[in-house]
Design goal:
Elements (H helix, E strand, L loop, with lengths): L39 H8 L2 E7 L4 E7 L4 E9 L1 H10 L7 E2 L1 E6 L10 E8 L5 H9 L7 H20 L12 E4 L4 E5 L29 H18 L7 E2 L2 E2 L1 H14 L3 H9 L10 H82 L1
Parallel strand pairs: 4-8
Antiparallel strand pairs: 1-2, 2-3, 3-6, 5-6, 7-8, 9-10
Helix pairs in contact: 4-5, 4-8, 7-8
């Protein structure tokens, strides 16, 4: 986390406008009491006393701390038009655990200005660890991501982007740096930047694109998003940026298939099956987010079936182990009984011989006495 600079600390004097029903960003003298069962994040974003500047990342972005809590926000400053303002307002109503939400904004413009565009500071959750950084961090020790975590990443991101698809919104700006790992909630989350795509389309485009199949049909943006997310997840699974399979923007099929073979060795089964469908080079066969849900469900059912089979096999093995143990115990008891019997037979014979000697001695004594 970025350290705070004492000189740079400053309380904001501009009014912060409430643009969502979920959060109430009102500056107050002291934090209010937390309500029973209130989400910690919701509490911090509604009970803070001030926003304290921490550090500038670029000329248009900075990090702020939600005082007095250890919660950080990213602030993006830009000139936006009314359509973009409306789009941001609409998106603050959208809630999904795998989406990074816009929280609130500050209107920095002169309120008497007649200019249609306005300078806004837009605040959203700050997550310091993106997938690109995660790959660099794990690749140093070759610490591959567990299969369950990769699966949760597929489920979470596909569900978030299906959420956008149902609202008619494609992301179309997916990169290794636009998907983050939330270390607090252990979730992979994606930031929707679609409101600003029209202004700077060259800045907002997918990092990984499939090969053009030669048709003149308009590309399906949702299917392109599926391909790009599949490549991003593949990069994390292999701990390498898959940009090296492109040559001057053209995907190299040989290198692409080599990566899929490595994936098969590392994550055979459901992860490999789903990722292969996501990065299918056939633009017609590749699913959109809605169709991908059916594939995920099918693989989930297969996994449940495999788990049940494994459970049955384990139970059968346990039963066989129990039977073997019982047989071993029974055999051991029989052996011990035979040994005891043999020991008992030897003791009885000794007693019989001793009794004979006693009887012989008594008979000799009685004969002497009679004489």
């Amino acid at each position: 986390m970025y350290s705070e600079y004492c000189i740079g600390q400053q309380k904001l004097n501009y009014p912060i406008n409430k643009i969502t029903q979920s959060y109430n960003p009102v500056i107050q003298d002291a934090p209010r009491q937390r309500l029973p069962n209130e989400n910690p994040k919701d509490y911090m974003l509604s009970a803070y006393t001030s926003l304290i500047h921490v550090i500038d990342l670029t000329s248009t972005s900075a990090i702020y701390r939600v005082d007095p809590f250890a919660k950080y926000l990213c602030c993006w400053t830009n000139i936006i038009n009314q359509a973009e303002i409306s789009a941001i307002l609409e998106r603050t109503k959208w809630r999904h655990p795998n989406l990074i939400s816009f929280l609130f904004y500050q209107d920095m413009s002169d309120k008497y200005s007649q200019i249609k565009t306005r300078e806004f500071k837009i605040y959203y959750e700050y997550l310091p660890l993106d997938v690109k950084q995660l790959i660099e961090k794990r690749s140093q020790t070759e610490e591959y991501v567990p299969e369950d975590e990769i699966w949760k990443m597929i489920i979470g991101l596909s569900d978030a982007l299906l959420f956008l698809q149902k609202k008619g919104v494609s992301h179309s700006a997916l990169t290794l740096e636009s998907i983050y790992f939330d270390e607090e909630y252990l979730l992979y989350r994606v930031q929707d930047v679609s409101p600003f795509r029209a202004k700077a389309p060259h800045l907002f485009c997918n990092q990984f694109l499939p090969s053009v199949n030669g048709t003149n049909l308009k590309p399906n943006l949702f299917k392109q998003d599926v391909f790009c997310v599949g490549m991003i997840i593949l990069s994390l699974a292999l701990l390498r940026d898959c940009k090296d399979i492109y040559n001057e923007g053209i995907l190299q099929n040989g290198l692409f298939e080599e990566n899929l073979q490595k994936l098969k060795l590392l994550y055979p089964g459901r992860v490999e099956n789903v990722l292969r469908s996501m990065v299918d080079l056939d633009n017609e066969k590749r699913p959109d987010w809605n169709e991908l849900q059916q594939i995920l469900q099918q693989n989930k059912e297969k996994q449940i079936g495999l788990s049940e089979q494994q459970s049955n096999i384990i139970q059968q093995i346990d039963k066989q182990k129990c039977k073997i143990n019982v047989d071993i115990n029974n055999n051991q008891e029989n052996i011990e009984m035979k040994i005891n019997i043999q020991k008992g037979d030897g003791l009885d014979q000794k007693l019989i011989n001793l009794n004979k000697r006693i009887q012989e001695t008594l008979s000799k004594s009685m004969s002497k006495n009679l004489r």
